[in-house]
Amino acid sequence: MSSNSNMSLTLKIWRQPDAVSAGAMHTYQVTDVSPDMSFLEMLDVLNEDLNAKGEDPIAFDSDCREGICGMCGLMINGDAHGPEVTTTCQLHMRSFTDGETITIEPWRATAFPVIKDLVVDRSSFDRIIQQGGYISVNTGSAPEAHSVPVPRDDAMRAFSVATCIGCGACVAACPNGSASLFMGAKITHLGELPQGQPERDSRVVNMVAQHDHEGFGGCTNIGECTAACPKEIPLDVISQLNKDLRTALKHGF
Amino acid sequence: MNYEMPDTTTTADPSQDTPAEMTDDAAGYYSPGEPIVDAKAPTGPIADRWQDRKFEARLVNPSNRRKLNIIIVGTGLAGASAAATLGEAGYNVKSFCYQDSPRRAHSIAAQGGINAAKNYKEDGDSVHRLFYDTVKGGDYRSRESNVYRLAEVSTNIIDQCVAQGVPFAREYGGLLDNRSFGGVQVSRTFYARGQTGQQLLIGAYQALERQVAAGTVETFTRHEMLELIVVDDKARGIIARDMVTGAIETHLADVVVLASGGYGNVFYLSTNAMGCNVTAAWRAHRKGAYFANPCYTQIHPTCIPVSGSHQSKLTLMSESLRNDGRIWVPKNAADCEKDPRDIPEEDRDYYLERIYPSFGNLVPRDIASRAAKYVCDEGRGVGPKVDGVARGVYLDFAAAIERLGKDGIEEKYDNLLDMYERITGENPYEVPMRIYPAVHYVMGGVWVDYDLMSTIPGLFVTGEANFSDHGANRLGASALMQGLADGYFVLPHTIRDYLADGPFEKVDESHPAVVEARTSVEERINHFLNVNGTRSVDSYHRELGNIMWEYCGMERTEDGLKKAIDLIRTLKDDFWRNVKVLGTNESLNQSLEKAGRVADFIELGELMCIDALNRRESCGGHFRGESQTEDGEALRHDDLFAYVAAWEFAGDGEPPVLHKEELTYTAIEMKQRSYK
Ligand SMILES: Cc1cc2nc3c(=O)[nH]c(=O)nc-3n(C[C@H](O)[C@H](O)[C@H](O)COP(=O)(O)OP(=O)(O)OC[C@H]3O[C@@H](n4cnc5c(N)ncnc54)[C@H](O)[C@@H]3O)c2cc1C
Ligand code: SF4
Ligand code: FES
Fold first, then answer.
1. In-domain check, residue A2
2. Structural domain tally of chain A?
3. B652 C-alpha to center of ligand 1: Å?
């Protein structure tokens, strides 16, 4: 059961007016924080306060606030999405203690430039998908759904890695700023399915090329990504990615 | 769920029951307009109508297609599917969304599943049965031709999604699994664990990104449409704000599609995402598009209750929990603050089982929702008090755990119970869960004809943003079906008939209509930034939400609605004079974004109340206090209200004009229904 006593906290938050200006950490006090609040609701309350005082509210991203859209994402005390295995929007204040100081920063990665305060630009993820993260099938040309059975275990594995929400925590957590976990999840999702086979080689080659072009770093198997991933995408998708890449190169791609 | 849902409404018998004293409650709040006589659906046998329409729709020469420009606002299921399909066909598409990626549209949050009349289970399903269930589920307030078409194309959706790599649940033999959902008797719902919306949207998103790479679609993320451009009575473009730089951009096209989702956030708290809004649809409404049935709202009985005034959104818990959980509150208000486990059996009121002995906890959504409201109004609600009232009821698994074991419950509901624990910090295996109804979906939206075109030529509206398929209530797993049906299979055909006359005469950015649209956007933004008032945008939004929930929520009355309209008018006036928006236009400014959305929600809220006032009947998901049976059940009035209420904007401060589209059913009998 949750405790009912409200907390006072010190927040150190990264403020940066826009992409080109320099940023800095600023300190704020919040009081009367209920343990039942979500982390973002705590920031909403701080923002109402700042607004009342005539100070510019802190910009941060969120939309669904139920852990599925992938829009939110903060570095909290140095951990992507904070101390629990979940998204920032599903983190609740009961995970913190009264009197604590919390440091809040945006995702830090070359390929995710800061736009303002805690908001970053993750459009590089979309561009990776553009380079093959799909199956080429025009609307209306699909065969009857039951014409190709898919073994249940393959379908389950495809599903479990297709749950990636594209939040970018894996990149933020990685000392190299690599997006291998994100990319591996997509490669594995489509590679597990019979429908994904025809483009399997070109997909991996083109996506990896775009990944490197965007300025994401290489993977050195540290594993911080999977530890930070709110959807618990396993590290073996990166082995799958590497395996598919070697196969494709062998095939002369 | 293998039980038959009872009918939710009783139909008034016109011969005896039409009250002579029946007055037009909304008189004075609107002016009557001409009826809508032609929604452009082909006549003929219902099963042939769509085929006929597709055949009649003129073709566009492939070499002409790249000269035709299409704007699509929204990248949810309805928008992304349309953008991908029209891109594949070779048109020039511009796709807009307010999130940082098209993949984040709120369709992503749908949990339960998507319906399709595949009849893979050989359990008697068919296109006709899906059509029938949908019309009946909507309480005979939808347009039959549109609904039939929806059922007809539903099967193609599954084929398309499977080919794209959507990992639906499968059986051991490798074929697709189905379940029964929302009380229907056939198993026609396809699903991907509790993340069906996510998987379908990722499929559509990937198809969209493929077209971006192919050069047919250009995406504009973090862009918000703030105005529609209408030139010579035709939709010809939009004004959008780049939410990062603040640049006000003009985008011109031959045709505009709105796939901008639902407006449940007019209630402030709902299961919608933070950014869901009515702005795109409302701006179009102000430019001449009729808005239909705005008061039709769906309220879902099993959401996690509000925990305090800081609450920013509500989370849905799947309805399936009602299969095994028992709903109760203490018999005595004095017990409400006790630990529920210390309240003995004889002091508990299992009110659904008591009032509805045959269906118990499985009564339809609206009945379960209303009953929860009544017990909380009586002061018997449980959980934290917000503004002095505890709004929550117990959903108790103790008996089910005894029966099926903890493992049995875990296997069935693990995901959900974990999510509950994460949000509330309470372990539902030990303490009864608390639930309360919340706004979840809106059936109302921009009026469209059979071609999905609004009353503004060249403005098409798809997905939750339009009104056409769900009548007064939506069946579970049908919104995903509608979004994809519209985007993949309907719009691409109907839009080509319109585009066959294009490319239309080029519009210049200096055209007075373009300048007017642009200037009005700039003036609005300047106004918000210069009011320098004292109240935050959120505080207005919350107040509007409270008014809507109190008076235009689960139960509506004439007095309440009239009061709400007065309150909203006062709020609107205060908002424009006293709102406080800091910062500038020229950078990311989330308060400024919200100010525009709340301004439009306030206007919509008033229209919803007027619509609800006009509709003096209980039907579908909503209950009018003045229209009930002696037992307090919903009473529908087919004699008086079997119409779509399509509202025309008549100018600021002017009463809206009501155009009625009579609903006639040729392929289905409008059934006299009774509950009990
Ligand atoms: C929690 C939840 C669970 C649900 N579960 C189910 C289910 O199991 N089965 C089912 O069938 N239905 C379900 N529904 C309903 C269903 O998910 C939605 O009705 C449907 O997904 C709406 O799709 P859409 O494409 O019309 O809109 P959305 O997916 O909401 O997309 C709207 C798009 O419009 C854009 N947009 C909006 N305004 C603007 C603007 N002014 N400028 C630019 N862009 C704009 C947004 O960026 C977004 O891309 C659920 C809904 C919720 C909230
Ligand atoms: S792999 Fe995990 S951390 Fe990375 S983007 Fe996907 S969900 Fe986020
Ligand atoms: S806001 Fe959608 S995942 Fe957090």
1. no
2. 2
3. 29
Q: Which domains does chain B have, with CATH numbers?
A: 31-296+443-499 (3.50.50.60), 299-440 (3.90.700.10), 512-637 (1.20.58.100)
Q: Name which of A20, A42, A68 to mutate to probe chain B: the one with the most chain B Cβ atoms within 10 A of its Cβ.
A: A68
**Furthest-apart CA pair in chain A: how many Å?**
64
Residue burial B409-437, b: 16+ Cβ < 10 Å; e: rest: beebbeebbebbbbbbbbebeebbbbbbb
Please spell the DSSP secondary structure of B208-221, one letter per residue.
HHHHHHHTSEEEE-
Domain holding A100, by residue range, is 7-116
Q: What is the rounded distance in angstroms from the CA atom of residue B120 to the CA atom of residue B460?
A: 34
- 8 A C-beta contact, residue A137 and residue B85: no
In residues, how long is chain A? 253
Q: Among B103, B365, B496, B556, which one carries the catalytic annotation? A: B365
The ipTM value here is 0.98
* Rg (chain A; Cα; Å): 21
- A2: pLDDT strictly greater than 80: no
CB of B134 closer than 8 Å to CB of B147: yes
| Full-model pTM | 0.97
CA angle B626–B629–B633, rounded 5-degree value: 90
CB < 8 Å from B in window 145-204 of A: 145-146, 148-152, 155-156, 158-159, 162-163, 165-166, 189-190, 193, 195-196
Whole-angstrom distance between the N-terminal and C-terminal Cα of chain A? 57
Is residue A1 situated within a structural domain? no
Q: Are strands B657-662 and B297-303 parallel, antiparallel or unpaired?
A: unpaired
CA dihedral over A191, A195, A200, A203, signed as positive or negative = negative
| pLDDT single digits (tens) B534-545 | 999 999 999 999
Q: Please indicate whether residue B365 is annotated as part of the active site.
A: yes
Residue A132 sits in the same domain as residue A39: no
CA-CA-CA-CA torsion for B437, B439, B441, B443, nearest 10 degrees? 100
